[in-house]
Amino acid sequence: MNFQKIGLDLLKIQNIFITSLRNASKKTGGSTKNKKGHARPKHRGWKVQDGHHVSAGTILATQLTPRFHPGANVGFGRDGTLFALEHGKVYVTCEKIYPNFEHSWVQKHYADRSNQTIYKKFFNVIPSKQENVFKLVDEC
């Protein structure tokens, strides 16, 4: 066996691999979803429409400024989220509000509307099963 011939053959094989090495034609790119300056939308607003049936704890609306107000059987979260406190049917009404203009939060949002009548949407949840419970207001 000729070791020189084997060594030459190995050199030829190495040269073939070295010359046939190919680089990538494009750089690998990162995800385009996470580009800076393009925040993901928060999808605020109505979550449940008027007339739909909801269960307790269902989110009815999300908001940053006070667009919607809680009515009967509706809770108000720290971030302005409205949620159902009981099972029932959702009713959205438009009603007058009488804000306390001495409160700092009210001054911040309604300062320019102090002499106007302000209407806002109220979310109400009417329980599905109405029980025969009532309060006696006045005896005849």
Annotation keywords:
single chain; alpha+beta; 140 residues; 17% helix
Brief synopsis:
This protein is of the alpha+beta class.
User: Which secondary-structure class do the elements indicate?
Assistant: alpha+beta
Radius of gyration: 34 Å
Q: Count the strands? A: 8
Query: In percent, how helical is the residue content?
Result: 10-25%
* CATH homologous superfamily (4th level) name of the domain at 45-127: RNA polymerase II/Efflux pump adaptor protein, barrel-sandwich hybrid domain
CATH topology of the domain at 45-127: OB fold (Dihydrolipoamide Acetyltransferase, E2P)
Catalogue the unreliable spans. none
pLDDT average, as an integer?
Answer: 80
Number of helices, where a helix is a run of at least 4 consecutive DSSP H or I residues: 2
Question: Which percent range describes the beta-strand content?
Answer: 25-35%
Largest sheet: 4 strands, antiparallel
General shape:
elongated
CATH architecture of the domain at 45-127: Beta Barrel
CATH class descriptor of the domain at 45-127: Mainly Beta
* Alpha-carbon distance between the two ends: 126 Å
- Going across the major beta sheet, what is the strand order? 1-3-6-5
Order of helices and strands: HEEEEEEEHE
